[in-house]
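Give me the 3D structure for GntR family transcriptional regulator.
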Amino acid sequence: MLITIDPDSPVTLHDQLVAGLRGALARGEVRRGERLPAARDLGAALGVNVHTVLKAYGRLRDEGLIQMRRGRGAVVVGAPETADVHRAVIALLDAGARAGLSLDDLHHALDQGAER
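Predicted structure for GntR family transcriptional regulator (116 residues):
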């Protein structure tokens, strides 16, 4: 599981961490029943305060993606819902086909959209 944090980003550190962890769960890099790194270890690895990690873990707990238990740590119990993303991808592919755009054209459009 690779998570990167950009201290110069306008997005808060804990929001970046939540997004990184959510992405790892959605991609299946971490599966149900697996333990996440201890907050202290993850904080040290990323160069962030342990409370930042605990805040991120708390958000994931509130979303029902992890459980936190004393002595057991943070354990994955769910994965983010990605059905909306899949529907949007299909709609994008359909719209691109109707417009005569290639897959490379769509990739380029996504890259441009991500830069905004």
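The beta strands are 66-69, 73-76. Let me know if you want a second pass.
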